[in-house]
Amino acid sequence: MNSQDVALTPECEECGTVWLPSDTERWRAELLDDEPVDHLAFWCAECWERGFA
Ligand SMILES: [Zn+2]
After folding, report:
1. From the CA of 37, how far away is ligand 1's center (Å)?
2. Ligand 1 centroid vs 35 CA: distance in angstroms?
3. pLDDT in tens, 18-29
4. Per the count of CB atoms within 10 A, which of 11, 23, 26, 36 is most buried?
5. What distance in angstroms lies between residue 38's CA and the mean position of ligand 1's atoms?
6. Into how many domains does the chain fold?
């Protein structure tokens, strides 16, 4: 997946839910710089709270 695809249809790293524009405020994004290529990862609010809070 290239950066343009990520920008258009980001998906939750955990459950694969597509990030809808209406859900923007509830999601989290982190830039994973330990990957071969920088990877912007997204989590929905539920997975973020379950796995990272
Ligand atoms: Zn999720």
Report:
1. 23
2. 21
3. 988 776 667 888
4. 11
5. 21
6. 1
